[in-house]
Amino acid sequence: MRRCGGAVMPALAVCVSAAAVLLLWPWDSGSALGLRSFILLAGRLLLVLALLTLIISVVIPWFQSYSLTQARSSLVAVPEDEQERRQRLARKEQQERLSEKTSYYLENVIKPREEMKLRKQEEHFYQMTGQNWKLTQGQRLGEDESVVHESGGGEMGLETPSKEALRKRKLPEHATKPAPPSEPVRQKKGLVLPEEPMETTEGVVTVALRCPSGRVFRRRFLKSFSSQVLLDWMMKLGYHTAIYTLCTPYPRRHLKVGHDLTLEHVGIATDTVLNVEETIPCD
Known about the structure:
β1 and β2 form a beta hairpin. Among the domains are: 2-24 and 36-73; 92-133; 204-278, Roll (Ubiquitin-like (UB roll)). The chain has helices at 2-24, 35-74, 80-128, 143-150, 154-157, 161-169, 173-176, 228-236, and strands spanning 204-210, 216-222, 244-248, 253-254, 272-278. The protein is an alpha+beta fold and 283 residues long. It is 52% helix and 10% strand. It holds the Pfam family UBX. This is UBX domain-containing protein 8 isoform X1. Residues 139-186 are annotated as: Disordered.
């Protein structure tokens, strides 16, 4: 900029000198200026000012751009290795800043949020499974007793360590007294079905029970088995004899069974289908 200013100042000086010459030059031969000469002089003055303005507006930017170009060219070029090293340092610093921000966010935001979420899930699990006692802090065994003994006063303070230990080891009465003998539990008699014979065994029949639910159960019996086995089988499937009974499909009638009647005696000599129905009189 200093160089530009030094170059512009002579140009301005030249322009001002030219303007002074134009103003002081005797344009008419007469000694006095008339109206016409004054108008011409004023026009020339305006023309000189316009010329000066044009020169200043064109020359000064040109000198400024020229000075900037010279200043840029005078700068020492940075080597490529130095540029790459600076770029690597800048990238490394940026990555370190990002890593610090990420670690701070993980430590102060994400980790507490995950711990709170895990704690809520654990509390919900214990509440659903009825294990709320796991959510309490708990206390050491005998801790309450020691607090009571310390606040008890004079009598507790007179106990010797051996007596105090004996008192703490003393079990409650319900743990030392034997429990009253309870009534013997009657074992419930289970329904036992005879083993299912092979298909090739002589006298084997297949009985199918059509239940009210629509399911059909099949089983093999010997014709010599007691007909009571059919009722036992029905009860084992979940249909009590007080509510349900066995009926033949056609003709529809109750199947009379008993311990002294075999399957062959009640009419089951071949493969048969029986209906499990509610206890309603059948025709």
